[in-house]
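Final report, section 2: Outcomes. Of the targets proposed, F-box domain-containing protein is the one most frequently requested by collaborating groups, and we therefore present its record in full.
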Amino acid sequence: MSTTLNHNDAILGSPLLRLPGELRNQLYEEVFSLCNKPGDRVQSDASKPSWTDLLSICRQVHTEAALILFMTQTFVFPYFNFLEMAYTRLSQDQRDAIKVVKITTNLSGWCNNTSGWLSLFRWLSPRGIVCFTDLLPGVKTVKVIHEDGDDLVHIVKLLISFYLPNDMKAALEAWFKNGAEHTITVEWGGRDS
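The predicted structure is given below as tokens.
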């Protein structure tokens, strides 16, 4: 006697899979939006179950819900150059599905040659990536959070480059919106809002 179920038997045996696809998608969206908590999947505790384990229930659930996960979450990039990793590690479908991005920066990150904005722009240029929507085409909202330490070094840098942040802000805002026909909302905030 075979214990292997065919696809139709699996659907008939599952109350979830018997629901119409549109309703299942609404359920996936609701579940994933309820679970929109800050976290780092790379550094998560593998011994504890994760809410993303829902995607491992069966192939059909994974196929139907995997991109909904990308559509419903806010993707947080603690450093702007993490976008490079998103570009190289995510599939085109996954990048297209991302709708909200939060980028955290600090004053030293404006001009840091190794891990800041300048480094990212040097990486983007030879690849023909001229605007944010080349990286993540589906993004509708970019939240840029400016987090500065209150130490004396940052205060001195702020005083020395008093006009730079506004110029950089305008340049970055144009970069976010370039090619997107102003479909991206850029939200600027201080200290993780």
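Residues 1-72 form one domain.
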